[in-house]
Specification:
- This protein has 2 helices and 12 strands, in the order ββααββββββββββ.
- It is mainly beta.
Length: 165
């Protein structure tokens, strides 16, 4: 069974969710795993589904890179996961590393533990990464330097040690 295979914006910030991050759910975000059309020069917008019905008729308000935005039209390359300001525990799920097409990942203000996964360096489309205000430990992985589109990185208020690459 596939849950939300066409989902591009998973925004559940500022709720009271708790427990481990739902790793099995991320496996089914097919639109974030293989984003067809990402190399096109022309930006396309979501408008119709296969039945011809309008998709995302309403606008959406997001906080991206510490600024609030209202998207009246959602372009097809906009892929976001924001689970910030909840009570999630455990580690950053490895299944997130399969979502190579997503642009923004915000897991800040939770109770995540463990190391920052080295595999985050494979998310070459990532523009913003916020893992601040968790209980992450260890060093900042050298692999994060591979994120050439990254414009915002916040790892503050964790238990990290060592040099920043």
């Amino acid at each position: 069974m596939f849950f939300f295979p066409k989902l591009r914006i998973f925004y559940l910030s500022q709720n009271e969710f708790s427990g481990s991050l739902p790793a099995e759910v991320f496996e089914n975000f097919r639109a974030m795993i293989n984003l067809h059309g990402a190399d096109k020069c022309k930006i396309e917008y979501m408008s119709k589904n296969l039945d011809g019905d309008a998709m995302y008729e309403d606008s959406v308000r997001l906080v991206i890179k510490c600024q609030e935005f209202e998207l009246e039209r959602i372009n097809t390359i906009m892929t976001v996961i924001d689970l910030s300001s909840n009570h999630f525990e455990g580690v950053v799920p490895k299944t997130l590393m399969e979502l190579v097409s997503f642009r923004l990942l915000n897991l800040s203000h939770n109770n995540l533990r463990g190391h920052i996964p080295l595999e985050l360096g494979q998310l070459n489309m990532l523009e913003a990464l916020d893992l601040s205000w968790n209980r992450l430990t260890g060093k900042v992985p050298q692999e994060l330097t591979r994120l050439t589109f990254l414009t915002k990185l916040n790892l503050s208020q964790n238990l990290l040690i060592g040099r920043i690459p």
